[in-house]
Amino acid sequence: MAHTSGRKSYARKRKEMELALGKEPDRLTFWEVTHKKKNGNFVNKDAENSLVVAGDNNLVDALSPNIHSSNASHDPTNGGHKKS
Length: 84
Fold this sequence. Notes:
The chain has a domain at 28-67. It has four helices and no strands. The chain is an all-alpha fold. Pfam families: Transposase_24. Residues 63-84 are annotated as: Disordered.
C-alpha cells in the first residue's frame, strides 16, 4: 500500500510527530498521517478503507504503542511466564 513519508524514515517521522504532539503517536494515528497527502486526502481508496475498518473495529487500543504493558507477565525467555 502506498504511503506519503517520502524519503523520511518512519523512525524520523515518528520522532517529528512526538515532538509536535508532546507524546508518541499511537500506531493508528501514525499510519493515518503516513497514508494521507498534504491536502488531507488519502493516497488511495484502499488506505482510506483500511483506516475506516480499523476505527470501526476499535483497533485504536489494540494498536497503541503500549500494547505490551498490559501483558507484563509475559516473558518469552521463560516459557511465557514472568520470572519470580
